[in-house]
Write a structure and sequence with these properties.
51% of the residues lie in helices and 14% in strands. It is α/β, with parallel strands linked by helices. The chain has 2 domains: 1-31, no CATH class; 34-207, Beta-carbonic Anhydrase, Chain A. The chain has a 5-stranded mixed beta sheet. The protein binds cobalt (II) ion. The site of cobalt (II) ion has 7 residues, from helix 5.
Length: 214
């Protein structure tokens, strides 16, 4: 059996394991989803969303891209936020970055990377926003780690800038937005303890979208 064919064998084993004590598992799963969480993470193969949180199918809605970026002209990301917040009514949105992120590292290089240029520009903008703090870190490896964290912080702010999040929070008191970083060398995730209420207040000084259009 080739490694590729093995995937189907793995799938059959997974299905069988799920049905051992619960024959109707997949029939029930097919009916609906009501995940409490929306996870936005890096596409990196070493950070599997469900596994790091110990969540089963149906328990987390997931969006992943290079370096876990949320920008307002990305129709894919905006559609995921809209659906997760307004239709699924998730209680928590988690932006999860990770150390050793190739996307963040690439954005620290003085190189032309083709179509990755406009994508990684978002990370260079995060660097510019926090230039004073980052330039004060003498060790490049430490600066890289801090940029990973600051990128997560800025992406949580971008999530909070959306009308869906602002309006849902005003009406229902959810979702709350969190920023995490995963340490690949230990597997552990750390909550950056972003003060959601304070950030929301701050964001709404300029980006308030909760008013009604007449
Ligand atoms: Co990454």
């Amino acid at each position: 059996m080739t490694p590729y064919d093995q995937l189907f064998e793995n799938n059959r084993r997974w299905v069988a394991a799920k049905r051992v004590n619960d024959d109707g598992y997949f029939e029930r799963l097919a009916e609906s989803q009501q995940p409490a969480y929306f996870y936005i993470g890096c596409a990196d193969s070493r950070v599997p969303a469900n596994e790091i949180m110990g969540l089963e199918p149906g328990e987390v809605f997931v969006h992943r891209n290079v370096a876990n970026l949320i920008n307002n002209t990305d129709l894919n990301a905006m559609a995921c936020i809209e659906y997760a917040v307004r239709s699924l009514r998730v209680r928590h949105i988690i932006v999860c970055g990770h150390y050793n992120c190739g996307g963040v590292l690439a954005a620290m290089q003085p190189r032309d990377m083709g179509i990755l240029n406009p994508w990684l520009r978002n990370i260079r903008d995060v660097y510019r926003l926090h230039e004073r703090e980052l330039e004060a870190i003498p060790e490049v490896a430490q600066r890289y780690r801090r940029l990973v964290e600051l990128n997560v912080v800025e992406q949580t702010r971008n999530v909070i800038k959306t009308a869906a999040v602002q309006q849902s929070f005003l009406a229902h008191g959810y979702p709350r937005v969190h920023g995490w970083v995963c340490e690949l060398s230990t597997g552990l995730v750390r909550d950056l303890d972003i003060d959601f209420d304070a950030v929301l207040r701050d964001i709404k000084q300029i980006y308030d979208l909760t008013g009604h259009a007449d």
